[in-house]
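May I ask for an example protein's residues together with how it folds?

___
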Amino acid sequence: TGCGPFIFENYDRVAQRVYFKAYKDYFGGKPSVERLIWQQFKSFDSMLLSLRKGDIDVFLEYYGPLPPSYAKSLGNAETKLISVPDIGVPAAMVFNCRKYPMKLKKFREAVAYSLDYDQILKIVATGQGQRPTRGFVPPAYPFYKPGLPVLEQNISKAEELLDELGFYKSKDGLRRDSQGKTLKMDLLVMGGPRYPRLVQAAQILSQQLRRVGIDARPSIMEYLLADMKIFGKRDYDIYLGRFQPLDILAGCATLLFADSIGNMGTCNDEKLITLAEAFYTARDE
């Protein structure tokens, strides 16, 4: 609208197609393509089938990387695949710091030490990735801080931290507090055809946490309902989700963690909130 290289012509609701024509007076020069058709698909598989058949020329979606499991079926002379460093975070656990025991740093540390990152890496990225560090910004960003400690599994350390918090192990292997209440929580994850690896990862995480006595059960919800619980009501225990480049660019992800006006986070740490506010009012990099 206004100054782009293409002009809107028509939208065919039945065929789910949007038609554009080249704008001859475009300030960057007339586009080399005379016409652009944006075809919408109801499923990812039907879109890939059209791509294989040659009905469409390119697959484009904002931060919608092609799942590695589909790459083999497209690896032919007619289709070009491009591999680039991920500038989003394909899987991350977010703790609701407004709730107990997620608000306790020792508890979050215990969860971190409980996880088998290599196993998760195979599921989420089919091995094409790296174990996370104690920073959240991905390596592809200019603000990435190298040299931070890499997260690693340490079951004995996780057990030690949970013991220090007063969560004792009962005969069934689950931990309980001093009142005898089981250490139980929901592990919220978005379902649907676009997030099969996240659902699978949530199931694996649940098994890994149970090993140290934490009963974290996957709670699979459709996108809109999950979104309302996470970013609207903030009514969840632990959320497993993927985060887009814009989420990372917003103050190096402070948007996701700081519990202040305009943010989605639940952490009210004074230093974090002060840094977040400084990010949003900064006038240069």
User: Anything to note?
Assistant: The longest helix spans residues 196-210.
